[in-house]
Amino acid sequence: MTLSILSWVLLIICNLITVQYYTTTSTLIFPEYLSHFLLSLFYLFTLLSFKIELDNKRTSNFTEYLWQVFSIGAYTILISLFFKFFMYVTRDTEFSKNLYLINFFYHLNIGLITIFLANGFYVWKKMILYQKSRITDFAWSVFEYLVYLSILSNFFSVDVLTLPFIVVSSPLIVFGLFLSFNLKWVAFLNYKQKWQCILFTFLIIFISCTFIQEIFDSQSDENLVINLADNIFILAVFAFILLNCFSSLLVLFFNLPTSSVFEQKFGEVMLFQKLSQSIQIGDKEEEVYQLLLDSSLNTVMADAGWLEIIDEKGNFKAFLNKDIDEINVFELKKVLRKNQVNIDNEPQYIKNIKNYKYTERLEKLTSKSLLMVPLSSHNHRLGTLVLLKNINDGFDKEMVDIIFTFVSQASIAIKNFRLISEAVQTERYKEELKIAQEVQKSLLPPNQMFNIHTETAVFSKSSDEVGGDYYDLYQFSDKRFAIIIGDVSGKGTSAAFQMAQMKGIFQSLVQLELPTNQFMSYANNALSKCLDRTSFITLALFIIDLEHNSIRFSRAGHCLPLFYKNAEKSTFAILSKGLGLGMTRNTDYSSRIEEKEITFSSGDVLLLYTDGIIEAFNENHEEFGMDRLKTILTSHAHLSAKQIIDKIIEELYTFTGTTHINDDYSMVIVKFM
Amino acid sequence: MELNFAKHKDIYEIVIDGDLDASSCIALDKAISDAVDKGEKKILIDCTQLNYISSAGLGVFMSYLQDFENNKIKMVLYNLSDKVRNVFEILGLDTLVNIQSSKDEAIKTVDE
Q: Most buried among A58, A73, A163, B36, using CB within 10 Å?
């Protein structure tokens, strides 16, 4: 901008000096081309400064663009007219005869016109290249270069409408014409904006014409150094702007009647977008209902309507009504039902409800035509949308189609909401189960325990997240501790709860240091009150006394514990009488359980397990069985407790051919050192 | 699993054919409770074709013990395979449920 002002100032100085010398000496002090050169520079810099300014502007508000052309045009024309008025007022004084002043004003005009043209030129560029294609982009580049080239026409004084003029300007005309019919921007204006644009365009044409007239007025003025009337650049840009203004005017006028339809369609597209976007985070299912009802009513200009939504189980979930009260909805539905109109499963259109039977109670209802569209997704009913109009046969096919699309779009949105909330729910259950799993893990003692005289190792796995197997330890003293193993009938969550209960019973009763059979009697009493009729718990309790090398134990229905006797290098099952817990509510339980005692020596191994181990089967439906377990124990009893367990599990998996055993399975092993 | 029913005089017989697991035990539970509702006092259960019994299956027999004692109903299981009988024995349930090795003995037991 500063460069263009600088070149303009230089141009004035240069030309005024020329005038000075010419009038006194009739010779030119500067070569003629200097003035032309400075004028060209001014054109160039002005164009470039507007190019830079407008290229950085990013808006698709075309009224604003046209306003810019108009406002700059208005400022420039006002300034120009002011000086013209000044000249007119002083026409008889010395002022008007002053060559310097006349030339100065003319140069001012050149500056103003150039600013108006450069701004108009680049604003039209923005509009023409809106949604540009490759061809328009290319055409514009060529046109722009040609315009820049035309600046050079300064140096040659070419008369308008002579052959050289036509030759030079014809490519400009061709490209200018081609470009001025790229008026895609017009389509994106609404009705009001179009009127504004028409007004601005008229004003711009008016301003342009005033300037042109001024140029041609001063053409014949002998006192002027520069003549703009034969400048191809100025004329080309003027012509281009005027051409665009006229073509825009025409297009704007012809687009006026269709703009309301276009706007409506555009609104529908926006509504679709809103509906499909409403599934995004933050929106609620209820907002989709409101959106569907409102947009349906607005789009087809219905007078009233209601929307019913039902949940997955078919229960009533939401009801929205607009401009019709609930009593009327109720009565209307009754009429439809009596006339056997099925509004739940297929779309229905009633041209005039008043022609139907049983409509006595609808006397006050102003609505006549009804459109009923059910909402559904994957044959799953979601609800019904009903629209009413106060005129007979008020819905045409177009409207019905639009409503269908709205409804299907909304149905998808609603279905998605439900699927998402379902997924969230499932995810929450999974999280809860994980917590339960963690809690249950914390109920079981650590995997390995060491004592100078014994080595203990455990293993436990559930087929579900939580299971019903239970084992625990309790240390009475350095030399005495209790081991318990148990199995709750069934598996999964209910078994896990019973198992937790069992832990409480064990930890309370074991402290009483009761004989093992008495422990079982108490436990049976406690459990009888909380187990349901078909559930039971099997237990085996061992109290190990390292001082006397003795084990006292009771087995309440639990699978037989195995004992490896190092001295005999053989394994046998420890038999004892004992009924599972929770099987009988009678007080005679104590007679159905016994306590036994065995002794152990160094190298002996006690193996406790749950039935998941021995009942695991292979693909031939053979069970792993106790005998196999005995054999494995006998042959690996020399290993550490942990190693024996690892060996058993390895053999178990090899036998079943899978690590997914469909039951809870646990083991506790105690090796005596 | 399939269940068959027979009645000879005052003896009601349920024949179990197949595995008694968590899902099939529901049918057995219903069969027994139906028999109780009908006022049957002598119930025989033929376990010849019973291959496998899960803890849920055991739970069914267990759940009627109190009922039967209160209402003077006699239920006898007979002809159990060694495997199934072993399950009853390990659990100690053989001391609560009347188990006989043959049908004759079972009839004799309920007629006592």
A: A73
Chain B residues near residue A580 by CB distance under 8 angstroms: 91-93
Contact B96 A536 (CB under 8 A): no
Q: Tell me the residue type at A22.
A: Y
Q: Which of A81, A100, A44 is nearest to A213 (CA)?
A: A81
Chain segment A628-663, per-residue pLDDT in tens: 999 999 999 999 999 999 999 999 999 999 888 888
Query: Environment class of residue A30 by beta-carbon count within 10 Å: exposed (0-12), middle (13-18) or buried (19+)?
Result: middle
- Return the bridge partners of A552, or none: A543, A597
CB-CB under 8 Å, B22 with A489: no
- pTM comes to 0.58
Is the distance from CB of A534 to CB of B59 less than 8 angstroms? yes
Quote the ipTM score: 0.90
Q: Which residue has the higher pLDDT, A104 or B14?
A: B14
Share of chain A above pLDDT 70, in %: 92
To the nearest 10 degrees (0 to 180), the angle between helices A99-128 and A232-255 is 40
Shortest Cα distance from B9 to chain A (angstroms)? 30
Q: Is B43 on the interface with A (CB under 8 A)?
A: no
Distance from CA of A535 to the nearest CA of B (A): 6
The pLDDT mean for chain A works out to 85
Pick the CATH number of B2-111 from 2.60.40.10, 3.90.400.10, 3.90.228.20, 3.30.750.24: 3.30.750.24
Task: Give A603→chain B minimum CA distance, Å.
Answer: 28
Question: What CATH number does residue A385 fall under?
Answer: 3.30.450.40
Residue A352: is it exposed, middle or buried by C-beta count within 10 angstroms (0-12/13-18/19+)? middle
Half-sphere exposure of A294 (CA within 13 A, CB side): 11
Count of domains in chain A? 3
For residue A159, give the 3-state DSSP assignment: coil
pLDDT < 50 positions in chain B: none
Phi, psi of A382 (to 5 degrees): -110, -25
In terms of Cβ atoms closer than 10 Å to its own Cβ (0-12, 13-18, 19+), residue A423 is exposed
